[in-house]
Design brief:
Blueprint: E1 10-11, E2 19-28, E3 31-40, E4 43-49, E5 52-59, H1 64-74, E6 84-89, E7 110-115, E8 130-132, E9 157-158, H2 159-163, H3 165-171, H4 174-179, E10 183-188, E11 194-200, H5 203-216, E12 225-228, H6 234-243, E13 247-250, H7 256-265, E14 268-274, E15 277-282, E16 287-288
Parallel strand pairs: 1-11, 4-7, 5-8, 9-16, 12-13, 13-14
Antiparallel strand pairs: 2-3, 4-5, 6-7, 10-11, 10-12, 14-15
Helix pairs in contact: 1-5, 5-6, 6-7
């Protein structure tokens, strides 16, 4: 597991080409032109834990180890990062695909995790592999009744810092600027410094990438603010609670289940972080106004 300075901003966008060049007809009211454009890349990734396939994620290539680790911990398949013995990106053994000179023969669509036997929590249906599409999550609403930790972090952040984080996240969305079609998740310090940003075709994957990045590098999460694009749904709040992130803000809207879960588990949930305003739905004590 590699180390990187916590204050150094990193992004999944620089690891690979995020777009596929495609020839299109661009039609306007008064003209038609033939041009090359970029289409965002979508590929499957199989996640295997101790030899058992637990999920196939439809994702934007990049940071496969981080995505698989973050997914397994945030979904509860792995108890914690201390239980992880080995993470292997099959075909390469690299943190992310796409460096110059990569050979086409190696598979980049499978990650294997080996964890301690007591740290592995297999799926309830081991004979069923979950297919998780880019547009929606796969969390079970029945998990509302499971035992979840309360978010105990005492992080407090100034309102003026929080109000600037939406724009800061947008500035880090390199893949979105070049090809469009991506969501982003970023982790910020209490002073507004961007620690890490990840993009993916699914907002859940983007969140799992930044969680996995920090877990593998032992970067604390209890003193970070998570900012995401797309709606703050129940499963997004659930992942943040499991990871111990105290403040979650989205530039879009939260759902009712997300608000209820956040209130119950002491997560500070913020919505509509844009245009110089925000709505604080739960546990406003962490927001200094």
């Amino acid at each position: 597991m590699s180390e990187r300075s916590e204050s150094e901003m990193v992004s999944t966008s620089g690891d690979h080409s995020s777009g596929l060049v495609w020839h299109i007809q661009r039609v306007r009211a008064d003209s038609v032109e033939s041009v090359d454009d970029q289409v965002i890349i979508e590929e499957p990734l199989e996640v295997v834990v101790n030899g058992q396939s637990v999920a196939v994620l439809m994702r934007l290539p990049g940071w496969e180890k981080e995505l698989a680790t973050g997914f397994c911990v945030s979904e509860g398949y792995v108890r914690g990062v201390d239980d992880v013995l080995l993470v292997h990106h099959c075909g390469q053994g690299l943190p992310a695909p796409g460096p110059a000179g990569e050979e086409a023969g190696g598979s980049r669509n499978r990650v294997e995790l080996w964890v301690t036997p007591e740290g592995f929590r297999p799926p309830a249906r081991p004979d069923v592999v979950r297919l998780i599409r880019s547009g929606c999550g796969a969390a079970d609403v029945a998990a509302l009744g499971e035992t979840l930790p309360r978010v105990t972090g005492d992080l407090r952040v100034a309102a003026e810092v929080l109000l600037g984080l939406g724009q800061a996240l947008r500035e880090g969305q390199q893949a979105h600027h070049s090809a469009g079609g991506t969501h982003a998740a970023g982790l910020f310090t209490a002073t507004g410094e961007l620690a890490v940003v990840a993009e993916d075709i699914g907002r859940h994957n983007a969140l799992d990438k930044v969680i996995g990045y920090c877990l593998l590098r032992r970067i604390p999460l209890a003193d970070k603010v998570l900012v995401t694009t797309g709606r703050a749904s129940y499963e997004m709040a659930l992942k943040a609670v499991r990871a111990g992130i105290p403040i979650v803000a989205t530039i879009s809207a939260p759902t009712s289940l997300a608000v209820q879960l956040a209130e119950d588990r002491e997560l500070t949930l913020i919505g509509y972080l844009r245009g110089g305003r925000m709505n604080v739905y739960t546990h406003s004590r962490r927001v200094m106004t």
